[in-house]
Amino acid sequence: MGRPKGEFDKEFRGTIAKKVVIRQNKVLGTILSAYPDMSNIIPSEAQLAQRDKLRRAQNYAKVFLSNPANKAFYKERCGPRQRPHNVLISELMKGITPFPPEQA
User: Fold this and answer.
1) Structure pTM?
2) pLDDT per residue over 48-81, tens digit each?
3) Nearest by Cα to 79 from 90, 68, 65, 63
4) Which terminal CB of the chain, N or C, has fewer other CB atoms within 10 Å?
């Protein structure tokens, strides 16, 4: 496992050619590891259902927040370091139906 030292390494994260994963850790810094082999993994029905639910929530949030009034409404509901998209996705995953703001 390699751990580069310096300030520049804090910017890097992601994968390289599906061979190496670059991760950031508060304690260890930058961590390089092998890309996970998921070829033998068979997701359960519950996992597939959850993935589908998240996929539908993402699509709905993208369309819903394209309206500037809806986006402004959810921007007001955001806490520190939150984005309207994340707040809406959280509500959708909890089963809370979003209501667009009342039009004046």
Assistant:
1) 0.66
2) 999 999 999 999 999 999 999 999 999 999 999 9
3) 90
4) C
